[in-house]
Amino acid sequence: MKKLINDPQAVVAESVEGFVAAHADLVVSSGDEEKLFVSRAGGAVSGKVGLVSGGGSGHEPLHAGFVGLGMLDAAVPGAVFTSPTPDPIVAATVAADGGAGVLHIVKNYTGDVLNFETAAELAELEDVTVTSVIVDDDVAVQDSLYTAGRRGVAGTVLVEKIAGAAAERGDDLEAVAAIATRVNENVRSMGVALTACTVPHAGKPSFDLAEDEIEIGIGIHGEPGRERIPAASADEITERLLTAVADDLQVASGDRLVLLVNGMGGTPASELYIVYRQARALLEQRGASVERSLVGNYVTSLEMQGASVTVLRLDDELLSLYDAPVHTAALRWGA
Amino acid sequence: MRQNRMALIDLDRAIGDGDHGENMDRGFTAVLGKLQSTETETIGDVLALVAKTLMSTVGGAAGPLYGTAYLRASKAAGTTLDAAGVADVLEAALGGIVARGKADREDKTMVDAWGPASEAARDVARAGGSGVEAVQAAAEAAQAGAVATEPLTARKGRASYLGARSVGHRDPGAQSTALLLDAAAAAAREGERG
User: Fold this and answer.
1) Is the bond preceding A61 in cis, omega lying within 30 degrees of 0?
2) What's the Enzyme Commission number for this chain (chain A) (predicted)?
3) Given A243, A308, B130, B187, which residue has the most CB atoms within 10 angstroms?
4) Is residue A72 part of a domain?
5) Contact B108, B154 (CB under 8 A)
6) Does residue A103 sit in the same domain as residue A220?
7) Pair (A146, A289) in one structural domain
């Protein structure tokens, strides 16, 4: 294992330390190693619904990179690939409450759901009203009857952006939660891994993939969802991903969409644009129009090579909230 | 947990994301520290301290699941742990895990270790055995239960995404359960020898 780290146990703390120092105009850290979270530099916004998300580290810029104007109020980084415990989530929730309650945006992974659920109950004891929205945009998981259900993957960024804009314009907690739910209902994703990643404390790759194999339908830790197939061209892989996503979302002629091509951390931008090119062409073949695009590393899996394709169906309100100003370390426009 | 850290990581790499050994090592290292620095009077106090420490240090799915198990166990614990007491504690722990994780037997989870363990302890109690014998039987049943997860298809947790490809791998949570009960059995035997 070759990594730019000092000590596997210190990866999260040192990374957060650097992050808040680099973006001191936007964010601060709680500075408490046992209750570590990142929140807006100005503190909770009075009267505004607070948005809190979090999960295992290793998916940067998710979630701390999306703390700031128009998006999250606080983010809780757990250990690498391990959801945070309830204590820091409660602390972040209290810090994010501006008196209008807090929305937890939780990716559908068993650990994230259980810890946020416990934290929400504990936060209520601190007189903070909490509502939770579970993001489950991953179409790779087909039969939710015999699994933990669809995972929350890159679509989470769009949920956080749009719900964040709704909170910023002054919607109450119920309305912000309803918007977040609406985004989740209209967003689908699927990913592919070309190589595994190495979790620092494990010291070896998280899964084994032969040189000529790729894993279709991965989650954001490389865990599989559909099948392992021989390596194929970018267009063939993109078609598999996009078709699964667009079929599940029932993309139809006239639909207005956001297309997000997300890198898993180890894939160059040039390759992401090759994927984007094909995904966009396939959507246009269906008569849909891609109104907004994001191409880059937003929800990563350490240094894993691979990408995911996310499609969000827009309506007028979702589009205007998507376009609303955002100023975070990893996403910025209009502000 | 420290000795078995890498073994659990490897089991979890096969069908999960490879963090289970690290998380359990972190949690139980914290438990050792807390037990040395905190005054506890009853068995329930000890179990409650373990519960709180695990919940606030382990994270992932294992933190809330083991935390809830020890919390329920602490409430069920009496002043002495005879065979019936051991069975009560293990049944309560199992109930907590099932309530939190909503898993059934044969879903390929830690329930497949806790279930047989609690039954084995109850059998010893019914047969008039001692508390030490009950923990010993529970530990053996948990280990057998962990081994028996190998041919199962995972239906809960991270491994469920593998579906049929999870077959042939032992569930890491069932294995860490077996390790915990094995440690409890060793401690009980040592306590008996005094």
Assistant:
1) yes
2) 2.7.1.121
3) A308
4) yes
5) yes
6) no
7) no
Model-level pTM?
Answer: 0.92
Unique residue bearing structure tokens 């952006």: A161
Q: Rounded to an integer, what distance in angstroms lies between the CA atom of residue B106 and that of residue A147?
A: 13
Q: Rounded distance, CA B116 to CA A261, Å? A: 47
CB A328 within 8 A of CB A276: no
Q: What is the pLDDT of residues A305-329, one digit of tens each?
A: 999 999 999 999 999 999 999 999 9
Give the DSSP letter string of B49-91.
HHHHHHHHHT-TTHHHHHHHHHHHHHHH--SS--HHHHHHHHH
pLDDT at A144 over 90: no
Q: The domain spanning residue A192 has which CATH number?
A: 3.30.1180.20
Same domain? A194 vs A167: no
Cα-Cα-Cα-Cα dihedral sign, residues A32, B19, A230, A228: negative
Is omega for the bond preceding A221 within 30 degrees of 0, making it cis? no
Residues A157, A199 within the same domain: no
Task: Kindly list the residues from chain A whose CB atom is less than 8 angstroms away from the CB atom of residue B100.
Answer: 114
Which residue among B60, B100, B101 sits closest to A82, beta carbon to beta carbon?
B60
pLDDT of residue A145: 63
- Centroid of chain to Cα A214: 22
DSSP A327: E
CB contacts under 8 A, A 90-129 vs B, are 109-111, 114-115, 117-118
Shared-domain flag, residues A281 and A254: yes
The CA distance from A128 to B33, in Å, is 32
Q: Please indicate whether residue A327 is annotated as part of the active site.
A: no
* ipTM, two decimals: 0.85
Lowest mean pLDDT among A109-123, A162-176, A261-275: A109-123
Amino acid at A89: I
Give the domain range for residue A173. 8-185
A44: domain CATH number? 3.40.50.10440
Q: Is the dihedral of CA B119, B120, B121, B124 positive or negative?
A: positive
B109 sits in which H/E element: none
pLDDT tens digits, one per residue of A52-82 = 999 999 999 999 999 999 999 999 999 999 9
Q: Chain B residues with CB inside 8 Å of A114's CB?
A: 61, 63-65, 100-101
Q: State how many domains chain A has.
A: 2
